[in-house]
Target: O-acetylhomoserine (Thiol)-lyase
Amino acid sequence: MTAKRGFTTTLLHSDRLGKPEHGAMHKPVHTSVAYGYDDVQDLVDVFQNKTKGYAYSRQGNPTVTALEQKVTQMEKGLSTIAFSTGMAAISATIMALIRKTDHIVASSYLFGNSRSIFQTFIELGLDFTFVDPTDVNNVRDAIKENTKMVFLETIANPATQIADMANIGDLCEEKGLLYIVDNTMTSPYLFNPVDVKATHVINSLTKYIGGHGNALGGSVTDTGLFDWENYPNIYDVFKKGDVKAWGMTQIRKKGLRDAGGTLAPEAAHSISVGSETLALRMERACNNAQNLAEYLDTHPLIKKVYYPGIQTHPQHELATELFKKHGSLLSFEVEESVDCFAFLNKLQLVVKSSNLGDTRTLAIPVAQTIFNELGPEKRAEMGISDFMIRLSIGIEDIEDLLADFKQALE
Ligand SMILES: *Cc1c(COP(=O)(O)O)cnc(C)c1O
Model:
């Protein structure tokens, strides 16, 4: 037996443990849609979940499985299902586990598209309450008889509020609720939601895990903490075998197979390769973000900086306690005397783009783009001003980044 290996070592050698043919370093990209069997009983057993195997790639593919195993290792979870995007992972998880008479408590500081799909669920008849999750009491007050789930993000985008995650985890455990934490902003390198008793972890693999802005993907990881035995929404047909697997069986069948948000094997391969350097990239990007946040925080033309790594951030201590570093998402407001668009256009290195978690530093004016559809009222509720700029800090040399901001603010 080898000793427990570190985060990056485990990732680098994960594929080889499955002994890919010819001694390949990577799990090959399996493009076959269907899988054939010589004995029909073997095919039947795969269909009935009696043996592990593949039948049709919409609900499982060997290249995708290799990535799922890596995410499970990174999140210290029980098992993972990958999807075509982070949004597919979120919608499939909720569709598979929630019924129409159920209630969900969600953070009011959510990724814009998550908020938007939740609005669609409300129109389809689900009941949501949105609360400020920086205080567990807001979550406790919102819980009703029919509450089944609490859903929140680690570091909110764009205003970087940090949820009171450990206390909310205790509350969910006490009440027997599903506790879904979207870990995209922190990534499993900075934080594992299982440590605050999350029952499920969402990751947009598109962002830090893939890391190079060249593939879309998403995942849900079951941490093994939920008691499926007493959960009323599991269909009898999925109550087979190990109780711990019931929830994921239902997500794979109802959420992935039926809804069809399948990750392509080519994308799974790109994300797998990208994930090998997650730790290195996060270290560098977080250090860059800290440096830049400190520079912007003292600049007279910058009104306010939102970054959990600066002392004046309202949840600075909580973030320091929970996360290995303070992330690479950094937002700020320019003084009203500064023309926000002209300033952005003066940046030469920083790319004006909507993505996050790329190797390159990206900037976007928030109210006019990613949160434009929400309208001014909901934006105000989420703490988003019209002068806010969001940065996703990359891994460039810090001197170059600082120089770009200095010349643009001149
Ligand atoms: C980007 C993002 C998502 C959605 O992921 P996609 O892969 O773009 O669908 C979900 N949650 C958060 C916090 C995100 O930043």
User: Anything to note?
Assistant: The longest helix spans residues 278-297.
